[in-house]
Amino acid sequence: MSRALIIGAGGVAGVVVHKCCQNSDVFTEICIASRTKSRCDALADQLRGKTKTVITTAQVDAMDFDALCALIRSYNPDLVMNIALPYQDLAIMDACLACGVNYMDTANYEPEDTDDPEWRAIYEKRCKEEGFSAYFDYSWQWAYMDKFKEAGLTALLGSGFDPGVTQVFCAYAKKHQFDTIDTIDILDCNGGDHGYPFATNFNPEINLREVSAPGSYWENGHWVEIPAMSIKREYNFKDVGQKDMYLLHHEEIESLAKNIPEVSRIRFFMTFGQSYLTHMKCLENVGMLSTTPIMFEGKEIVPIQFLKALLPDPATLGPRTVGKTNIGCIFTGKKDGKEKTYYVYNVCDHQECYHEVGSQAISYTTGVPAMIGASMLLTGKWNKPGVYTAEEFDPDPFMEELNKWGLPWQEDFNPVLVD
């Protein structure tokens, strides 16, 4: 028996709740908590009477330390699942430490206010030392390692698909397919069509900040940073077809470079259509992607947050999105002294996801691994005090669960390489 507190009630959280309720042998009780309790109640109402899992709901502001601690202490969960925004990672980790409970999330920390002078000073120092300028990185959460170790608690960082499953794929390749890995290319293809001129498949604020930032990759022991969207490749994805993809900075590169140090190069590519890129560039040019607050008619607003309010809610895209995703990793390296290539990936159908849990595949491919990562912690299959990313655990039980819970993986032992 186990009890999980799920913080968040957006599109990904909806998938997490559905999958936890399908896995009621592990998730015997869950509490869904968010600033907007009505969204939690709506999720719970969808599933009550259809699952053995006992569901409760609560209202909480995850940035309110005292209120969050009060909720954790009253509910007494075995695990806090942070399915909210990455802005809230550190606040929730602090509450978990104070209350003596394990923690997990789906994306690494980034600040909401990138103009905060104290944060800015640390950020600019990191840019000079590390060589990449993305606002998000693991250093803030890795700094909690000793605190979680001393408390005997586990924090699992980034248990979505990318990050998350992609790192499990890397650990699996390292364990079973290679003696040494030379290069890793992570490919994220969304072949879905939602019919809107412009919309994002997950939180617009996080998505647009990520893809408009400079790209970077790891090569020969250091970061190489490039202008945003300046490296483009084409790739023919199984069940999706030929797509343009662009090199982005992505958080799992940072942890993989640390945990698989023999790798000479790690890159991350994501597909985008021309319409998306044109809309994004226009919005950037007129200042709508800015995170700096401005005054408008006597009120302070953040342009990108205002834009988020105008765009379709990703949680509503499920019924109208058709097509498939294909996300995976291509490796080169050596096995038994011989050169080897290997590609492991998942193909997911948007409409199949919608018919199962009411979401599109982007939320599904994040929410299912979040549930699996949580189950790894709750069952003790992944259990060591400290702060870790997914590739630092045994990949085998996680890989088995992917096949069981809706994200089966495929292998190609002679893949076409990116370049």
UniProtKB/TrEMBL annotation:
Q: Which domain of life is it from?
A: Bacteria
Q: Where is the Saccharopine dehydrogenase NADP binding domain?
A: 5-156
Taking every annotated instance into account, which residue ranges of this chain make up the domain Saccharopine dehydrogenase-like C-terminal? Answer: 160-406
The cross-references to InterPro entries, in alphabetical order and at most eight, read: NAD(P)-bd_dom_sf, Sacchrp_dh-like_C, Sacchrp_dh_NADP-bd
- Membrane-crossing ranges are none
What protein am I looking at? Answer: Saccharopine dehydrogenase family protein
Organism of provenance: Candidatus Faecivivens stercoripullorum
